[in-house]
Amino acid sequence: MPTPAHRRLILLRGAPRETQTAAQVLLTGLPAEGVLWVGGDHPQALPVAQVRRRLGESHDAVVLDGHGGLDPDALGRCHGFVRGGGALVVCLPPQGELPQGWQPRLVVPPYTVADVGDRTQRRLAAVLAKHAGPATAGAPPDRTTRGTAEQAQVVAALRQAWAQASPTLTALVADRGRGKSSALGLALQGQDPAKVMVCGPQREAVAEVLRFAGRPLPFATPDELILGDRRPRIIVVDEAAQVPVPALQRLVHAHPQAHLAFATTTHGYEGTGRGFVLRFLRWLADQGRPVARLSLSEPIRWAAGDPLEAAVFDALLLDAEPAPVTGTVDPAACTHEVLDRAALAANERDLRDFFGILVHAHYRTTPGDLQRMLDAPNLRMHALRHNGRIVAASWVALEGGLGPDWVDTVYWGRAGVRGHALPETLVCHGGHREAAALRIVRSVRIAA
Fold this sequence. Notes:
Elements (H helix, E strand, L loop, with lengths): L7 E6 L2 H11 L8 E4 L20 E7 L6 H7 L3 E11 L26 H13 L17 H14 L6 E6 L5 H9 L7 E4 L7 H7 L5 E2 L1 H6 L6 E4 L7 H10 L4 E7 L6 H14 L5 E6 L10 H10 L18 E4 L2 H6 L1 H14 L5 H9 L3 E8 L2 E12 L3 H8 L9 H8 L10 E9 L1
Parallel strand pairs: 1-4, 2-3, 3-4, 5-9, 5-10, 6-7, 6-8, 8-9
Antiparallel strand pairs: 11-12, 12-13, 13-14
Helix pairs in contact: 3-10, 4-5, 5-6
């Protein structure tokens, strides 16, 4: 049963101006600063490309304009901005029409916009419509954040680590909305600001940490901490997965005497969060110092069983898992298929099996990869099937076959050719002009 702390998904259909007006009317009862507009031509709209820079913020409502194409990565990030009791409002074209204008992002020569598929846009529209609630105004969200026993344990563990005389390493990972940033801020309460540094990819990313700390604390980017001469006793890095792993490694080496705490969101697969866990934490564990690993699983910014979270997980396959396999699979007992992508998009079990394999094998997998996989004209999907289930996946790109005009452009360094990494390398760096005409199949992802 819905609770006041559950978040809502609202789907508005119509022309861009119609849906924008409808969203404004719907959200009239909310303060303007509590609503984040993403995409579209609203005067305060945040460009979709900048959404990643706002991770860590909380809003009463987010309006995501999808008339120019519903961006899977933006959808995955925007839902995490909505606090409990709030709403994600998605604006789409009228029923029966698909978003237009996004297709050039997937075009590579010699293909054209007409060759780009629309399977992902159809999927997102259908799944969101299935989960959407009524387009009615709700009560303003309660902005009071109530902690959980689990969060209190994390705060206590951080304070205990920072009270030690010897420097400590701590890693905190959690899905969106679990109170990671607020836990960091609460743990920093009472610490001497002169001995603390809050760090992140940009100040906006650590806004919640600073808010819950209850007092002004100094902020620095990783580069500023690596290159500067400040030597804080406690360094807290929030949204650490947004920082390149080499920079995090240099930060560890630059501050051997500091208590270092790294926190990040590992929301579904969403790429960088898994990279942080698989690459950085593995490296950190090999440095000869103990690493305390903390986690948060219980939602704190919204209630458990949140309808909006369920909708986004369903739409973007954030909970995709490989097919269960018992024992060792004999390759001779498998059948190879070149998957028809229209059939794959229509078969939820096959789609989840295939994508789940890639998600668990490749930490850089993002929601945007789902769109490339289903719709990019230069890609092909291969699979091995065992007992009716997909147990191995391969994603390849078709490259080469370029004409003389492209050869001269690449050879003389005037421009690269998108989607043709191997021919471009052979022509530009190897001097093999004839390589541009070759038909090449490049492996993008392969996993079992």
